[in-house]
Amino acid sequence: MKIEQIYTGCLAEAAYYIESKGEAAIIDPLREVQSYLKRAEKDDATIKYIFETHFHADFVSGHIDLAQKSGAKIVYGPTADTAFESYIATDGEVFKLGEITITALHTPGHTPESTTYLLKDKDGKPYCIFSGDTLFIGDVGRPDLAQQGDLTTEDMAATLYDSLQHKILTLPDEVLVYPAHGAGSACGKNMSAETFDTLGRQKQLNYALMAISKEQFVKEVTEGILPPPQYFAKNASLNKHGYASVDLVYEKGLNPLSPDDFELLAQQSGALILDTRDPEVFADGFIASAVNIGLNGQFAPWVGALIADLQQPILLVVEEGKEGEALMRLARVGYDNTIGYLSGGLAAWKLAGKGVEEIKSLSAEEFVAVLKNNPGINVLDVRKPGEYETEHFDFASNKPLDFLNEWTNELKKEETYYIHCAGGYRSMIAASILSARGIDQVINITGGYSAMKNNASF
Fold first, then answer.
1. Is-same-fold flag (244-351; 360-453)?
2. pLDDT tens digits, one per residue of 436-446
3. Per-residue pLDDT for 189 more than 80?
4. For 395-453, what is each residue's pLDDT tens digit?
5. What is residue 188's predicted lDDT score, i.e. its pLDDT?
6. Are 34 and 62 within 8 A, CB to CB?
7. Cα 441 vs. chain centroid, distance in angstroms?
8. Which single residue of 136, 204, 356, 453 could bond 179 by disulfide (Cβ 3.0 to 4.6 Å)?
């Protein structure tokens, strides 16, 4: 028996490859499926099943492409309804894979169709569960994403409590818990950086599992949940109804454009110019109206949170050789309409004699001097509310990047705004978007809150 956790940091997502005696299964695959096919080929195994724990909201699954390329059966839990061919398991149904078995345990609460898969070894002993978004390490799935009819968030939380109590917590303590996400995912609020654990240890450490009553569980699980990113419902719909093959997304997006062609296509198509270079590099020179979301961060979730239309045409500015990675990470969250990239990057743009813009940045030390002489300046802290509430400077207003599209109109174009986050990644995203929207006097504080806090002058 072989179990491999395939963790993707950008999405804080875990897919799983399982193999036994030449038969393989994939649980919650990402959009790019070639790696799963190669793993199976290496083991001389046939992918028999693709198990989906639920209709994922935070990424587009690779289930459809993988089924077409491998011949495997897509399996969902009870109550799921898909627009493509799939197998809907019954609660407690057993699937044989080589010498092992995988049992579908219907565990609604996060979503109505949420299902946990229990793997038993060749001797029939419970070995591990693939818990999807039902049970995380340190947390449980948020219950506010998939209300149906008159069901409320509290109703779903109560359902989740019952699922945990009757289907999961009755399993042996030594059973391993393999969740679909870890710290950084918006699918929970208190997830650990650890990506697996034993069930017994989670009973002792997971706040949600330590609740002494259903009422306490519902209260604790529903308190402090931020609204979900706008792309969640759209991704869930794609996972339920289907999407274009990722091969076609590559074919359209891997389109190198000269500076002249890039400029012309941007004008004709109304495309968003998405610059994926590091924030510091972007600040020193970028194409007018370009938005910076760096690949070396949580690129896909921030694209999903801030770009409202999945069908928005996108033109990429990337570091040389990074165009494929950018395309794939966009496709992971359903942004399939990339129409090309700037061949040769910004160097080619400058060489063609085309102008660039800059965003002014100040170090923490330089900002101190400005603040002393101008104590009434506008300072925006774009960290999440929880970060701000934990610790902040009194002179800064909290304007979370997550909700930038809601608060942009509160700003005045004639005023100057100093922006910071924790370390500089999110503040440059905010600064670039504000600049693209005509709020030109934005100044980024490099190093963010961390640098400011460590400066003795504050």
1. yes
2. 999 989 999 99
3. yes
4. 999 999 999 999 999 999 999 999 999 999 999 999 999 999 999 899 999 999 999 98
5. 84
6. no
7. 31
8. 136
Instruction: Tell me the percentage of the chain whose pLDDT exceeds 90.
Output: 92
- Supply 173's token pair: 């303590």
Cβ–Cβ under 8 Å, residues 168 and 129: yes
Q: Stretch 375-385: mean pLDDT, rounded?
A: 94
The Cα–Cα gap between 421 and 384 comes to 9
Superfamily of domain 2-234 in CATH is Ribonuclease Z/Hydroxyacylglutathione hydrolase-like (3.60.15.10)
The sheet with strand 417-420 has its strands ordered as: 360-362, 442-445, 417-420, 378-381, 396-398
Q: How far apart are CA 365 and CA 162, in angstroms?
A: 54
Check residue 145 and give its pLDDT. 87
Q: What is the rounded distance in angstroms from the CA atom of residue 140 to the CA atom of residue 190? A: 8
> Closest Cα to residue 401, out of 415, 376, 422?
422
- Structural domain boundaries of the chain? 2-234, 244-351, 360-453
- Tell me if 35 sits within 8 A of 42, measured CB to CB: no
Selection from 45, 46, 26, 28 nearest residue 36 by Cα: 26
Sheet hosting strand 13-20, strand order edge to edge: 2-8, 13-20, 23-27, 46-51, 73-76, 87-88
C-alpha separations of 182 from 75, 135, 141 in Å: 23, 11, 11
Q: What six digits make up the tokens of 82? A: 């898909």
Cα gap 152→136, rounded to integer Å: 22
Task: Tell me which amino acid residue 195 is.
Answer: T
- Whether the CB-CB separation of 419 and 430 falls below 8 Å is answered with yes
Task: Return the residue matching tokens 């029939």.
Answer: 124
* Residue 143 near residue 224, CB atoms below 8 Å: no
Instruction: Return the CATH architecture of domain 244-351.
Output: 3-Layer(aba) Sandwich (3.40)
Distances (CA, A) of 340 to 116, 365, 436, 440: 40, 40, 20, 27
Helix (H, G, I), strand (E, B) or coil at 374: coil
Q: How far is CA 128 from CA 2, 21, 101, 104, 418, in A?
A: 12, 18, 11, 12, 49
pLDDT at 370 over 70: yes
Sign of dihedral through CA atoms 152, 154, 157, 162? Answer: negative
The stretch 232-237 carries a mean pLDDT of 96
A 10 A CB-CB count for 247 gives 12
